[in-house]
Amino acid sequence: MQSAQADRFVHDRLPAPEALPTMRFDLPELRLPDQCNLVHELLDRAADKGWGERPLLRSPRITLTYKDVRDRVDRICRVLTEDLGLVPGNRVLLRGGNSIGMALAWLAVVKAGGIAVATMPLLRARELGDIIDKAQPTLALCDAKLLEELELARKDRPVLHTVVPFNAPNEPGSMAVRAAQKDGGFEACPTAADDIAMLAFTSGTTGKPKAAIHTHRDVLAACAAWPRHVLKATPDDIVVGSPPLAFTFGLGGLLMFPMVAGASVYFPEAPYTPETLVRTIVDVGATICYTAPTFYRQAAAFARELGIGKLRISVSAGEGLPDATRQLWKQATGLEMLDGIGATEMFHIFISSAGADVKRGAIGKVVPGYTAKVVDDDGKEVPRGTIGKLAVIGPTGCKYLEDARQSNYVKDGWNYPGDAFLQDADGYFVYQARADDMIITAGYNVGGPEVEDALLKHPAVAECGVIGKPDEERGMIVKAFCVLKPGQAADAAMVKALQEHVKASIAPFKYPREIEFVSALPRTETGKLQRFKLRQP
């Protein structure tokens, strides 16, 4: 196939062929043409499906149809290529929260053949500098309110020579003003399916982020897997959620997957709190919601008070879903949570079950198009019911940008997301912990999330995180960090009460021998618990 990307920076920094994952396209819907542009497939062809006049992007101020979005994206593409000199394969840094402006910018960069490098709004200059150093973008499109840290980051980085605010309608140099002066009708860059569409920087739960490479084929294949076989959205669905568009969970759930179904997505003017998320669900008639388990847990009380309107699907991903949270949400809403596990490196969810297929305590079964197994340290599949490492293969896979950690993730063609699982006799996958979070204490294997789930069932506990702490006698002990609900006493009596509660809930050897009360837990912007920070002295 003929690549359209003249700038070969990312192509030249792909892992060596022997380090790449094996890709499988076993289902007919996963077999894509060798020449395709994902924005052309998802946006330009919407009119052919009868969706041109249907809403796609919504906000409190405006609703844009698929036809409107295509026109605005085309105008931005003309600015990128005609005014800013974008060459296919150039990296474009995107900095913004969840908004119509951010969504339009992402779609335009990829339609024009560029490589989108989306960044979290809360990143500071040092973190942005690391991304600039790695991705070498020459151009950035930035929310006007977030320019300060980006300007600091590029002071000593001349490679990033152009920064354009994308949502400043009264500034002459802004993307909004420039695009308004252009005609639409931009032909999508004729990218090869294996041309690069995006660099997704991991969210930093284990330290220094890595840049995962995804092609046009990767994103379209992911769109044909979980959304088609598990989510099953319809054109009448209205989607809301809190994951950032800069995170693959958010990009899929809040942009790509609605477009696959002809559905629409609603972006608020300010980041959600648990209360405003529930109020928005009710006010806009949202039918699908994406957020992380911690958010659902905090939102349950508001859902019980305010109701959930037309909501029919609540998707949880981003970190392990404690059964206590699943049941709390179900009691408040009547909805069974749709749980899933995915990875930035795999683009999206590869194990999940919905509706009648949900099994309590399990994430679900492997998504059609993927194969998964639980293996030992030598890569051999272990008997059902045995804890081991998860290995996955399918139509997407890990390709790090010039990173020695590639060999940790891909072994013999299989992707190792770094999770400890067991698979039961019925084929359901039961999450245990991140593989490096398994606690081996006096010869016993203890999964931190199982202890967290037990602690969360105590009425005094709002949040908790569990780690293994080195111990001379036992090798490790189970240690818990707990955030208590208001009015609860953080004293020795509470420690004793929580320890006894865990002993009565799960095997007694799993109880936390040490409990530390904290005011907050370290989390990424996507809501993931950063256990590596809890392990730091």
Keyphrases for this structure?
single chain, 4-stranded parallel β-sheet, Rossmann fold, about 30% helix, GMP Synthetase, Chain A, domain 3, about 525 residues, 26 strands, alpha/beta
Secondary structure: elements and pairs:
Blueprint: H1 38-42, E1 55-58, E2 63-65, H2 66-83, E3 91-95, H3 100-111, E4 115-119, H4 125-135, E5 139-142, H5 147-153, E6 162-165, H6 175-180, E7 196-201, E8 211-215, H7 216-223, H8 226-231, E9 238-241, H9 248-261, E10 264-266, H10 274-284, E11 288-291, H11 293-306, E12 313-316, H12 323-333, E13 338-342, E14 349-352, E15 365-366, E16 371-375, E17 388-393, H13 406-409, E18 410-411, E19 414-415, E20 419-423, E21 429-434, E22 438-441, E23 444-447, H14 448-456, E24 461-471, E25 475-484, H15 492-505, E26 514-517, H16 531-535
Parallel strand pairs: 1-10, 3-4, 3-5, 5-6, 9-10, 9-11, 11-12, 12-13, 25-26
Antiparallel strand pairs: 1-2, 7-8, 13-14, 14-15, 16-17, 17-20, 18-19, 20-21, 22-23, 24-25
CATH class of the largest domain: Alpha Beta
The number of distinct β-strands equals 26
For CATH, the homologous superfamily of the largest domain is named as ANL, N-terminal domain
Number of helices: 16
What share of the residues lie within helices?
25-40%
Shape designation = globular
Report the radius of gyration as a whole number of Å: 23 Å
How many separate domains make up the residues? 3
Q: Would you identify the CATH architecture of the largest domain?
A: 3-Layer(aba) Sandwich
What is the first-to-last residue Cα distance? 52 Å
Which spans of ≥5 residues are poorly predicted at pLDDT below 50? none
The strand order across the widest sheet is 2-1-10-9-11-12-13-14-15
Strand proportion: 15-25%
The helix/strand class is alpha/beta
What is the mean pLDDT?
93
Topology-level CATH name of the largest domain? Rossmann fold
- Describe the largest sheet: 9 strands, mixed
